[in-house]
Amino acid sequence: MNNTKVLLATSFFAPIQYYCKLIQYPEIVIEQWEHYSKQSYRNRCNIYGANGVLPLSIPVVKATNKKVLTKDVKISYDTNWQKLHWKGIEAAYKSSPFYEYYIDDLERFFTQKWDSLLEYNNEIQSEIFGILELEPNIQFTNDFIEFGSPEFDDFREIIHPKSSKQGPDNTFKAKAYTQVFGDKYGFIENLSILDLIFNLGPDSLDYLESVHSNL
Predict the structure, then answer these.
(1) Distance (Å, whole) CA 98 – CA 87
(2) Rounded to whole angstroms, how far apart are CA atoms 48 and 160?
(3) Of the residues 38, 42, 140, 212, which has the maximum number of CB atoms within 10 A of its CB?
């Protein structure tokens, strides 16, 4: 951690590593002026299903221009992906300790429609902040911030679902906790924040603090 500011991409039910940054840094800046990057956490999250990692992806409207800004990305409802996501989350976590405690607060994200991916992700993030009892200082970029800016610790591309694209992060090291299908496939690290809150509930914030406090 070299700076007090962290630069992140928007994220759909972001991974645990992402939420660690939200409690590590006094100032969080989320990039909205970048060219939208496909196959990233911007429109995807990974949960722990009955057969292992289950990716949930939000379809977006194809832009007429190849380069579309993240702030302009629109969600597509050509398929009923919300229903599929809801069923996937239910199947994965219905037997988890805190599913019934939190699921009603999350239902609207699978029944209501948002036009903008960025706004949808922001609403989800605000709901998760309430669950975790977090009040981070979040701002959004006014213009694209070039890579290598000395003002920020930049994790826009480091936090990525593809291991081949992940960058080094010496301030995060996952620790095992009990997961619903852990007896079958073992511990799977750095899944969506959903996995943490459904399994650990009120202890989720303590976990986030613990995975970087001893580094």
Answers:
(1) 17
(2) 17
(3) 42
Distance, CA of 208 to CA of 215 (rounded, Å): 13
124: amino acid identity, one letter: I
Pairing, β 27-31 against β 5-9: parallel
pTM value is 0.95
Contact 24, 4 (CB under 8 A): no
How far is CA 60 from each of CA 12, 39, 117, 164, rounded to the nearest angstrom?
A: 13, 11, 8, 24
pLDDT of 124 above 70:
yes
Rounded to an integer, what distance in angstroms lies between the CA atom of residue 89 and that of residue 69? 29
Residue 28 exposure: Cα atoms within 13 Å on the Cβ side: 20
Residue 21 phi/psi, 5-degree rounding, is -65, -30
Within 8 A by CB and 6+ apart from 110, the residues are 82, 83, 85, 86
Q: How confident is the model at residue 212 (pLDDT cuts 50, 70, 90)?
A: confident
- Could you count the other beta carbons within 10 Å of the beta carbon of residue 213? 10
Q: 67 is in which domain, residue-wise?
A: 5-213
pLDDT (tens digit, 9 = 90+) per residue, 14-53?
999 999 999 999 999 999 999 999 899 999 999 999 999 9
For 149-208, write each residue's pLDDT tens digit: 899 999 999 999 998 888 889 889 999 999 999 999 999 999 999 999 999 999 999 999
Domain count, the chain: 1
Closest CA to 172 of 47, 3, 4, 23: 23
